[in-house]
Amino acid sequence: MNKIIVGLAERSYPIWIGQEIYADLGLALNEVNFPNKVAVVTNPTVGDLYCNQVVDELVQSGRQVDVIRLPDGEEYKTIATLEEIFDVLIDRHFDRYCGLLALGGGVIGDIAGFAAAAYLRGIPFAQVPTTLLSQVDSSVGGKTGVNHPRGKNLIGAFYQPRHVHIDVKVLRTLSQREYASGLAEVVKYGIIRDQGFFEWLEKHRQQLAERSADALIHAVMMSCQIKANVVENDEKEQGLRALLNLGHTFGHAVETLAGYGVVKHGEAVAIGMVMAARISHRLDLCTTEQLDRIIDLLTYFELPVTPPDFSVADYLAVMQRDKKVKDGIVRVVLNHGIGSADLHQVDGLDKYLKDLLT
Description:
Layout: E1 2-6, E2 13-18, H1 25-31, E3 37-42, H2 44-60, E4 64-69, H3 79-91, E5 98-104, H4 106-118, E6 125-129, H5 132-138, E7 143-148, E8 151-158, E9 163-167, H6 176-193, H7 195-203, H8 205-209, H9 213-233, H10 248-258, H11 265-282, H12 288-300, H13 312-319, E10 332-335, E11 341-344, H14 349-357
Parallel strand pairs: 2-9, 3-4, 3-5, 5-6, 6-9
Antiparallel strand pairs: 1-2, 7-8, 10-11
Helix pairs in contact: 3-4, 5-6, 5-9, 6-7, 6-9, 6-11, 10-11, 10-13, 11-12
């Protein structure tokens, strides 16, 4: 068992990371005084695999449990799905002394977290992420929300969980494509904050590709620790936390233009990180050797590195709605070599994109 604390004063919370630790879920929730009446929010895919075990653990810890099953897929991360959660909570008389538990990937975690933030102006929630991407990214840091047809995650709230419970054993049931999608976010942490971690990923790429438990626990722990350190210093994304969005400005545009769910989030982030690295290379912020290492590692993990064929105008139109836009100016995170990054206003961004997309 590995434990990390996200230090946010009275809103601090633990992250438990290990293998076969669902048996400790009730204990973990007791330690943070989680409510006794709980709604588990999940989807059919995850629910069929793990819901019974999680519900049994919650019941054994003395809790009353309801289950809310939502449709599976990014295309259901909408206000309409959010209302389905509210309908169940209201029908089953959930009050402010109840809680939500998100059992699933990033879509479930984001929707359940936003529902918890909004229902009765805020009830406790916990994250039990079941994909690598959600374990290392969306379950940590308190970003919750839903998509809008015009852009990803445009509607949401910062709302921290009470507890995050990460069991790497569940990653064995992920499809290869879903697993690779999570590795994109793992690679991101090395690029933006920790050159040594990036080098560790290069050295242990085979173990990670084979889903070795020891390698996964270390990779997840390092990713969560890096994100926790950033969130502790910039919870509401006023500066430093924007660096976690390396590859996301262009990546979100890829997701939006392709149609939600067609290109997976991690795949889009991988494409976006390579686009950012190529711009960094043009600006002499990144050497050819560093650019090649980034592309090589992402390619090894079977991630795409070439953008879909949409026009520069289409990409820029979506990027203009990115949350990092300030005074109408698109700002992007660019890597400075490997292990460092910064937020940039790139003069002539449209020209760079035109050059790189043709």
